[in-house]
Design a protein that fits this description.
Oligomer: single chain
Radius of gyration: 15 Å
Bound molecules: 2'-deoxyadenosine-5'-diphosphate, magnesium ion
Number of helices: 8
CATH architecture: 2-Layer Sandwich
Number of domains: 1
Number of strands: 4
CATH superfamily: Nucleoside diphosphate kinase-like domain
Length: 151
């Protein structure tokens, strides 16, 4: 079972799109295993975006994600990482197809509403970075057999 870290970024929360964004992942079939509302500490933002630390947009990215509260969700599911990325859309919202979160609600790269892990290993690592083990709940959802095929 894969894990993916989703963040409703400050613009998503400020614009009142938190519910709409979570709804799409939930409707897709992903199972919530952790969720919290928080102001992101600068040190955590820098760790999360460490891969971009030498990019010209790094400082702006850290400023954006720490500028106002976010909602962080850990999801679990088969193919969770790629499925969530497809639900989110492209990094540049104006190139993102209609029907995706960014394609439906965003226009600019620096206001792209939502984060999702970009690989299976990153999904594991990001969930571990943002959540303590005690904040994650492992639970059998009654609809699981209707969403996850038995193998
Ligand atoms: P994504 O959020 O689609 O996973 P990413 O991991 O490549 O995209 O980059 C993280 C964030 O950094 C992205 O959501 C917006 C910002 N970003 C990426 N490339 C950028 C660029 N060329 N100019 C400005 N901001 C950029
Ligand atoms: Mg990314």
């Amino acid at each position: 079972m894969e894990r993916t870290l989703i963040i409703v970024k400050p613009d998503g929360v400020q614009r009142g799109l938190t519910g709409e964004i979570i709804r799409r992942f939930e409707a897709r079939g992903l199972r919530i295993i952790g969720m919290k509302f928080m102001q992101v500490p600068e040190a955590l933002a820098k760790k999360h975006y460490a891969i971009h630390k030498d990019k010209p947009f790094f400082d702006g990215l850290v400023k954006y994600i720490t500028s106002s509260p976010v909602v962080v969700i850990a999801f679990e599911g088969t193919n969770a990482v790629q499925a969530a990325r497809n639900t989110i859309g492209s990094t540049k919202p104006h190139e993102s197809p209609a029907g995706t979160i960014r394609g439906d609600f965003a226009l600019e790269i620096g206001r792209n509403l939502v984060h999702g892990s970009d690989g299976v290993e990153n999904g594991e690592n990001e969930v571990a970075l943002w959540f303590d083990a005690a904040e994650l709940v492992s639970w059998p959802r009654n609809t699981d057999p209707w969403i996850f095929e038995e193998r």
